[in-house]
Write a structure and sequence with these properties.
mainly alpha; flat
């Protein structure tokens, strides 16, 4: 899937959320989309769940 097509789909999702759900829904969809994008890029880059657990464990000490 090209980046332009993915951007178009994301824009359409945000437009529907904004139109039907209001500004709060728009922000929720935008935030969850950004988190999903970041996790997807991290996994594509070779990230592992073990890395997240280690990071969380170090932060609690």
């Amino acid at each position: 899937m090209s980046a332009a097509f993915a951007g178009m789909i994301a824009g359409m999702a945000l437009a529907f959320a904004g139109y039907f759900g209001g500004f709060g829904a728009f922000l929720l969809v935008a935030a969850l989309g950004a988190v999903g994008c970041a996790v997807g890029r991290w996994i594509e880059g070779g990230g592992r769940a073990q890395d997240l657990r280690d990071l969380y464990g170090r932060g609690r000490r």
